[in-house]
């Protein structure tokens, strides 16, 4: 009887350290570990196509998380994230082919190179905000795109650049099954690092600048320093994601890093939830599977009577292009806080069921 009386009931936190743990409860931590272990066995039961989607989620998730640190946690805006993603891809391929640097070293070096470029564009952007900041980052998108087209020594120009597969200790990760583990390791590592960063002094400074930059400045937070740092970290994540993308495909072309890719990254963090690490991954998964669902829906529609209507047939070609814009608008109207907020509401509903409070 006494043991039952002393048993804790609920989730109590009595220190700041407990309030800022990565996992809210021990149950969530155990579930996260189990989920990672299950993901490690994915190549045993998933086919090649689904593994390709999982790898795509990994490198896009890393890049999107960098953008969420900039936009969701620091309150800055960037319309050039796709270009930084491409710079990381070209930089890693260039380091490997031109200087014979091993791929497992060229990937982090490409991240630091992209970080330097991002901070260079972040210098003027750190002093402006709002619409002017959006225009400045949009300019960086087109400047880097033009650099890709003209710098044959770096990007291969219109021919593109080849990227060697990753190899370590004589083992070459040149299949979907083997590269999946590289992508999964990178994803888990970068997400854990981001969670620790956001719990640190720098992470709290990012949030303070986002919430009220004048109050943050009065408290002694150097706005230009932390805005520039957030641009650098965001670009570093984009560079790592781009480098993984390059060495997975084995070929990089400048046509894949247009403004449309930057808008897709923005869509991922808006749909997932601004200022949410797990929401970033939710948004990426949603955006990766959205074209697949649309493709299946279009195939089903073609097999019906509507598939013979000329207006419908002509309109199917534009459904995918319109879908991203419609989804962004829909989430901004009906779920502005993203999938992470909706998931929290569902979890709280069942946690307190059947009581409304």
Report on the architecture of this protein.
The chain is an all-alpha fold and 357 residues long. It has a domain at 39-287: ABC transporter involved in vitamin B12 uptake, BtuC, CATH 1.10.3470. The chain is built from 18 helices and 4 strands. The strands form 2 sheets. A two-stranded antiparallel sheet has the order 1-4. It has a two-stranded antiparallel sheet with strand order 2-3. Strand 2 (166-168) and strand 3 form a beta hairpin. Helix 6 packs antiparallel against helix 7, helix 6 packs across helix 13 and helix 14 (259-272) packs across helix 15 (277-302). The longest helix has 27 residues, at 223-249. The protein is globular, with a radius of gyration of 22 Å.
Helix/strand/pairing category = mainly alpha
Alpha-carbon Rg, integer? 22 Å
Tell me the CATH topology of the domain at 39-287: ABC transporter involved in vitamin B12 uptake, BtuC
**Main sheet characteristics:** 2 strands, antiparallel
Strand content: under 5%
Distance between the termini: 30 Å
Oligomer classification: single chain
The topology string of helices and strands comes to: HHHHHHHHHEEEHHHHEHHHHH
Across the major sheet, the strand order is 1-4
Query: What does the average pLDDT come to?
Result: 87
| Unreliable stretches covering 5 or more consecutive residues | none
| Number of separate helices | 18
CATH architectural name of the domain at 39-287: Orthogonal Bundle
Shape, per Cα inertia axes? globular
User: Level of helix content?
Assistant: over 70%
Instruction: Quickly name the level 1 CATH class of the domain at 39-287.
Output: Mainly Alpha
């Amino acid at each position: 009887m006494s043991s039952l009386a002393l048993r804790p009931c609920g989730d109590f936190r009595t220190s700041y350290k407990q309030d800022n743990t990565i996992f809210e409860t021990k149950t969530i931590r155990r579930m996260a570990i189990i989920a990672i272990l299950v993901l490690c066995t994915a190549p045993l039961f998933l086919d090649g196509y689904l593994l390709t989607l999982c790898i795509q989620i990994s490198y896009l998730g890393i890049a999107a998380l960098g953008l969420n640190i900039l936009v969701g946690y620091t309150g800055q805006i960037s319309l050039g994230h796709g270009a930084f993603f491409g710079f990381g891809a070209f930089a890693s391929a260039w380091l490997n082919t031109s200087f014979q640097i091993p791929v497992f070293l060229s990937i982090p070096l490409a991240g630091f190179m992209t970080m330097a470029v991002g901070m260079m564009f972040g210098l003027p952007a750190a002093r402006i905000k709002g619409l002017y900041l959006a225009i400045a980052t949009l300019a960086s998108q087109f400047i880097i795109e033009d650099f890709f087209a003209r710098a044959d020594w770096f990007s291969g120009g219109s021919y593109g650049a080849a990227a060697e597969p990753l190899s370590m200790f004589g083992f070459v990760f040149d299949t979907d099954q083997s590269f999946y583990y590289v992508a999964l390791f990178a994803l888990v590592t970068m997400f854990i690092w981001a969670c620790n960063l956001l719990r640190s002094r720098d992470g709290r400074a990012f949030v303070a600048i986002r919430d009220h930059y004048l109050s943050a400045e009065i408290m002694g937070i150097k706005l230009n320093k932390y805005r520039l740092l957030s641009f650098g970290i965001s670009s570093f994540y984009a560079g790592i994601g781009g480098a993984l993308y390059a060495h997975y495909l084995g070929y990089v072309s400048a046509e894949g890093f247009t403004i449309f890719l930057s808008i897709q990254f923005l869509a991922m963090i808006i749909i997932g939830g601004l200022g949410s690490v797990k929401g970033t991954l939710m948004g990426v998964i949603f955006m990766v599977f959205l074209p697949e669902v649309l493709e299946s829906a279009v195939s089903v529609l073609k097999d019906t009577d509507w598939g013979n209507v000329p207006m419908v047939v002509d309109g199917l070609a534009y459904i995918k292009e319109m879908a991203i814009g419609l989804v962004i608008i829909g989430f901004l109207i009906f779920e502005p806080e993203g999938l992470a907020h909706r998931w929290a509401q569902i979890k709280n509903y069942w946690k307190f069921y059947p009581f409304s409070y």
